[in-house]
Design a protein that fits this description.
By secondary structure, the chain is mostly helical. It is built from 3 helices and no strands.
Length: about 100
Amino acid sequence: MITAPRLEIAVLVLGMVILMFEAFAPKIDKKVFAFIGIAGLAAVLIATFFLTPNAPTDQTSGFWSFYLEFLYGRSVVDLLQAIFAAHHNSCARHDD
């Protein structure tokens, strides 16, 4: 099973890899990186449902799992909103 620190490390590595590719591959469209980030965060969100508690089961609360699920779910929603806002702004500029 997956532990919470491994998920945090996975998000950190995903972000660093995306930023490095974005910096050194300027010809690739930014939307590609956004979709990769969405897919990666969605995978981490799904993985939060399979967390292994670090403490004994009688002392574990479901709040940590809920917090991670909410955090990664919200991140995916924010990235989708950014993509749609960028698309809307580019369409508005072409209409002028």
